[in-house]
Amino acid sequence: MDRPAPSLSQFVLKVHSRCDLACDHCYVYEHADQSWHGRPKALPEQVMARTADRIAEHAAAHRLSAVHVVLHGGEPLLAGPDRLRGAADELRRALRGVCALDLRIHTNGVLLSERFCDLFLEYGIKVGVSLDGDRASNDRHRRYADGRSSHPQVLRAVELLNRPVYRPLFAGLLCTIDVQNDPAAVYDALVALDPPRLDFLLPHATWDNPPPRPGASATPYADWLDVVYRRWDDGGRAVPVRIFDSVLRTLRGESSLTESLGLAPADLVVIETDGTYEQADSLKTAYDGAPATGMDVFTHSLDEVMAHPGMLARHQGVEQLSEECRSCPVVNSCGGGLYAHRYRTGTGFDNPSVFCPDLMELIVTVRDREAVAGPAVPLADLDLLAEGFGDAETVGRLVAAQLDTDRDLLAAVRDRAPIGDELADRAWELLVDLDRNAPEAFDAAISHPYTRPWGLRALKEHSPGEVSQGLAELAAAAAMRARRGDTVQVPLRDGTLRLPGLGSVTLAGHQGLAEITAGAEEFTVRAGQRTLRAGWDEGVDGLNPYWNPVRLVQMPGWTVALEDTDPLRDSHQWPVSGRLTEGEAKIWAEDLTEAWSLISSELPRYAPGVAAGLRSITPLYAPDGSDVSAASREAFGAIGAARPATPALLALLIVHEFQHVKLGAVLDRLDLYDTGDRRTFYAPWRPDPRPLPGLLQGTYAHIAVTDFWRTRRRTAEGRDFTAAEAHFARWRRQTADAVEVLAGSGALTPLGERFVAKMGDTVHQWLQEPVTAAAQARAERSSQEHRQSWNRANSGTE
Predict the structure, then answer these.
(1) Which residue ranges does the record annotate as region Disordered (predicted)?
(2) What are the structural domains of the chain?
(3) Over the chain, what is the mean pLDDT?
């Protein structure tokens, strides 16, 4: 598949080129590039309009879902409220109907006032503030030209942003590191201001002008950050810190949150007050003219800017790094550091970062400290799960960890709601109240398996409408569970009121909002001129044709939902079926009851975990009538399946797919393998080569498959016994072989090696159990035929 053409989604717009402070570490005024002298002080209206059109043109051409614009300077507040309003109006005008706009401003804070904040509240402009810590630390660099301190004014700005009415505007604090400042004092002073996020930046430097390194340490910046990291960690990580979160994310193989770490391509361009395009501002540190592209908004498109060699170089990932960086063991996390920090006269940017020793030390220290601190899953739980099983308490702890993740995700989604979105604000206020006063109802609502797919999609697509709609749906579902009489307004989805985990209300012909009130005995839905009242037990099968509740199958020791109502349940690789008829639902319930009886009696080591962690089964549609099933990494607590021919096969599908659910939850908490390993391997249950994560998932699931056939042969007779014996003989050998491939891959972490070794212990015990000669021969023949077929289809793959 062709890669999409490189595009830009982040724009730094210089609305004013001068500043009211004289910070001696500023890259705009105090470093090599001095181009600010010849530029207009404020962004002219015609430049603003043309810039907005260029951004919209680019967003439309590349079908971007959102663009991120930062109003910057100099000091952007010097532009004044009217000019900032004009900039926001132009961007809104140009992007209307094209994509979402995430608009922010970064300021030193000294001019921030209620007038500015009211403007920012009106336009949803989030505010980041520069502050280098306590007064002594801040005053080391961030002063007025006459030497006066700026600290009191910045504290007033932060106090203003912390007022309840303006708090949604507050994006966080940015601190430039000076190793002569006390790191603990800096961190404590910043955290005391209750910021939503902290950002620590290394001071700008190059090999020509290296950073100060006072004292005997070769890594003073890593040492400084280590003090902060330990204080942050010991304090429960109460506030997100971008540099630490980025290191942790890249160590897990995820993307960085900052351009100074990781290998993600740069997608940012700067527009100066004269309309010229520039690369990242930090390049002003390298040499005079370093960020220049020679292009401007009047003559050149953003696609032409993307073709600039300097921009293209930063889209080449590890290949654009120096040879020393490419061979570095932490390159996936470091990414060579900030591009500007690599500059040296004579070799340009083909060097490691001037902070290379510090970045190496920081990443390794964080990695080692995380390992020493112990795994996020207790070792006793890890061992029990690795053996293939997991009791109710062990799986219950996975459930609790997933709930914590869902809470974090919900907060992240809330942060994407547009400022002033009354629907989202009311829904969030109700969710907060229910979390405090009806926590069981709140937890049950957000732990619905399809909450996470919704949340991840909302974050990825930057869709304000999806954010507010999903929050309202979750608030309604939580309110219905609490039954306190709360009223919630919820947007409809094509005439359907979605109530996650509870069901749906069909309001054909209606669009817009529905209002739902959840009382003790019934709930009421109002849409337009129509009012629907339903008791909690109505509608299960025809009592109320508009209310489609999720059907619950209640069995001894386990209650599971048949989820055929949620419009967002399509998270599996197979299409979902429609709403089950009364007869279909009855057959499902009967088969589930018999399958659960089989699991409880013949597979008792799986049953407690299934009961504790599997809350939902989503009926799937198999066009050819085959037995299909699936588990989604994003939908913990759910599996999908087309109803198989027999309850016994349904039992097999349940234990098989729940293995994927358990392992996915473990992988959310632990690194078991090198996420950068791109090799593929033979898997005896697939016709295609599998990457290491797929092989691990498949091997773990086939422990349950092997065990199923191992136990079935004890009760089967005749041909059924012969088939079960052959399945057991084949799958125990093939699963053991797959375990050996995993163990010898060289890509497992120490915890991954421990996990795979425990998997091997389970399977190797089964290799000692006797089987008939005929079954063994049949298993060997089947295995050989599969491998030969695989080799023919995948010649040269391994």
Answers:
(1) 774-798
(2) 10-368 (3.20.20.70), 416-549 (no CATH), 590-793 (no CATH)
(3) 89
